[in-house]
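Re: that chain you flagged

S.,

Sorry for the slow reply, it's been a week of failed gels. I finally had a moment to sit down with the sequence you sent. For the record, here it is as I used it:
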Amino acid sequence: MKIGKRMQELRKENDLSQEDLASLLGVARQTISKWELGETSPDLKQAKKLSEIFKVTLDELTGEKISKEKTEQKGNALKIIGLIFIDIFVFIFFIFMLLWILVLGIFSISILLLSICLFFNMNFCSLIPYIPYHCKVLLGVTTLALTVLSVIGTFWFTGLTKKLFKMYKKYHHKVITNSNEEIDISLHTPIFGTNKKKLKTVTIITLVVFVIFLIISLITCMITSGNIAFYHEWNWFIK
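Prediction finished late last night. Pasting the structure tokens below so you have them in one place:
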């Protein structure tokens, strides 16, 4: 914005005529008219005097501040539009994360119920095919270990989802406010507080138990049935 046009706006906002402004500055009315028409411009001393009369800064008088503010507003508008599109994709991403947590939770509960049925030789609605009881016990230990691993995985994935959500929330705030806030981008998930080492030990032990008992269970089933394909021998897939 040119200084003449801005000066005219400020003069009218302050209910001053060209004669009044000329009197305050100690110049002729024609000088004010030429300034406003853009034919000439006030010197630095006169510009400072004008800023004092209008009670504005030199940047506001020349229109530079207004131009900067408009540029910033356009930039902020583009940021908001960009964030809206990003928010849509992030929302879908977190929906899938939550669905996966739900799947893990349901899987954990299902495997736990299967373990209980195997240990106590229960068979609701004949869902479990024929298995000798000693094989059921071994498979029960295997599925119980798998349950523990699944529960740990569920909690870990839940912690990861929370961490990612907090990271994005901070990023969102940083973009909108133009702050210099640092964002922790590490994927460390602080589940179970200070018991991280214990949890790691439990996970490793459970994984070893799962692998060992899975192998023992399969070998025992083969020996008991007298056939490598024990599932065929026990007619698992025959109605």
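What I noticed first: The chain has a mean pLDDT of 83.

Talk soon,
D.
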